[in-house]
């Protein structure tokens, strides 16, 4: 029974990595960390993302219950929890990576 549960958990973790590994997903979540944003605002913040790709990524994040949409896109409680993973990476980046010119 434990092995079956571990395999199921492993598949779930892999699915999360696959979702977040898609281009723009992490950036969208990061840009929503301070609050809701409209589609246009997100497109401006995520310089270079096409409207069709942004729409697809937003739908994937909605399907995964990481964001929600009403008068703007915002993180759900699950999305807020996911941000706790970002902080150590942000700290590491500040220490070891210089900002782009």
Counted beta strands: 2
Q: CATH homologous superfamily of the domain at 23-83, by name?
A: Winged helix-like DNA-binding domain superfamily/Winged helix DNA-binding domain
Quote the beta fraction: 5-15%
Radius of gyration over C-alpha positions, nearest whole angstrom: 15 Å
Share of helix among residues? 55-70%
CATH topology of the domain at 23-83: Arc Repressor Mutant, subunit A
Structural class determined from secondary elements: mainly alpha
If you had to describe this structure to a student in words, what would you say it looks like?
The protein is mainly alpha-helical and 101 residues long. The protein is 65% helix and 6% strand. β1 and β2 form a beta hairpin. The radius of gyration is 15 Å and the shape is globular. This is Helix-turn-helix transcriptional regulator.
Summarize the structure.
The chain is mainly alpha-helical and 101 residues long.
Set down the secondary structure blueprint:
Elements: H1 2-20, H2 25-31, H3 39-45, H4 51-63, E1 67-69, E2 73-75, H5 77-96
Antiparallel strand pairs: 1-2
Give short descriptive properties of this protein.
101 residues; mainly alpha; Arc Repressor Mutant, subunit A; two-stranded antiparallel ribbon; 5 helices; 65% helix; globular
